[in-house]
User: Fold these one by one.
Assistant:
Number 1:
Amino acid sequence: MSLLELKGLSKSFGGVHAVQDLEYSVERGKVHSIIGPNGAGKTTLFNMVTGVYAPTSGTVHFAAQDITGLPAHTLTALGISRSFQNLQIFFNMTVMENILVGRHLHCRRGFVQSLLHTPAIVRSDESARLRAAELLQWVGLEAYISAHADSLPYGALKRMEIARALASEPRILLLDEPAAGLNSKETREIDELIQQISNSGVTVILVEHDMRLVMGVSDHILVMDQGQKLAEGTAREIRENPDVITAYLGTGASQD
């Protein structure tokens, strides 16, 4: 049974059809990639799955539950988390504090308890900090635990944002261009991290323009063009698909 299932999903902005009647299923425990030319609708699709946009039509089912149009905080509590194409970092906070933001759903809350700083609140805070430290070590950022976010290099900030997304204990993680702007060494680190996340049992959906990364890490690839599904399959099937070659390189390339 699919973990995530999209049925007839569409999103329009005025007369612009960003996503059109998309049918797509995500298998549990796999790495799924969504690729396509700029403007194909990939990030719009992410935004509908994660509650940033409500679909114009169609449905989103997660673990057999209809989650269409639910707000982002509700979806996070259900087990859906994401990173962003443009970094969403609290630069005036420490690295540890940024990870704790992603952990808040698993912390004890309550005005009176927090005001009195009860033992339960103290234990909850300590547990959250321990988990945050474990995640930072897991993504290779243990050296930055006490650092301020604005002191980190760009590649480390990318991994920090992924650690924050993992802090909510997601069942499915959506990564929007995690390798954008990275050098070859940093891209390899992201590649290894994605495989590590998948091996831990978290399902990954990846939007990425780095085709070397996509072809190396993906179990399944969806190709979008002009808001519609163009093709889907394994890396080899996608690499050899003439429609995909045409969409990326033009008709002349496919004829060559």
Note: The first strand starts at residue 4 and ends at 13.
Number 2:
Amino acid sequence: MRVTAARLVQHGQPLQVEELELGEPGEQEVILDVAYSGVNPVDMYGAMGLVAPDAPVPRTLGTEAAGIVEGRRVMVRGYGLGTIRDGLWASAAIVPRGALIDVPDGVDLRAAAAMGIAGVTAWRTVTELAQVSADDTVLVLGAKGGVGSIVVSLAHGIGATVVGQTGEAENGDWIKAHGADYVVAADAGGLVDALADLRPTVVFDALGGEFTGAAVEVLQPYGRLVLYGASAGPEGMVPLRTLYRKGITIRSYGGLMASDEDLAAAIRQALPAVAAGRMTVPIDSAIPLKQVNDAFERIRKRNVRGKLVLDAQG
């Protein structure tokens, strides 16, 4: 079976889109006809050799996707796909049968393709770590991002008051359209003043750097801070007296430590919420597979609202 695949041939070099022979699935493996594949920063880091530098090269990248197996609408993620074995940035792929997660009616396959990393991160941080309720005021730092935009929608679906932070005022209407009640356009230094009348009980922090300290300052007493990224910087100053005097709880999310089974269980919980409209996965663009390097360029330039996916048949 001939397929089109985006291949990492050399770290630090553009991916090559090639025709190759897929081969035959082994025992407990199946062929997935890929519809869409998720694109994440970690994929770009893998292509650069910053993540899984000892993984085999050449290989097909892509760690999450959605498509059809034996007439079933499914999504797949994990199980070494895209790292220790060929991945999902292809028109078809061999996947372990155990990796299949059924996609319910009402869930677009583009959204399903982004549930393996961003979607499950949003679900677990909101429902498990922060345990957001309708009584909360939630601040989402980096609200236009892949995870942040899903967190906005899910917190809104729960009934919380949602505040989205962005560094660019032009993102305001887009963030509100996906569930934010308020939008603040502010950097870390301006966050406290921007939130003078909106004291959050929960902060979701994908940014790190100086934003984490600012999050501690703006939280109400006994508030919860959930840290799941550091795109603004891996280090930052935290006001410790404020932290302990307010009784703030800090939780962090490291999805790479979770087992495939635990993540699959969380995704199965989250997909019905997507089907019911209580959680949305904003898709910026479905980029044709042959233009995969354009997707990396957009991630580098942070020229994305929500999620990028690859159209595996495009």
Note: The chain has two domains: 2-114+281-311, 117-255.
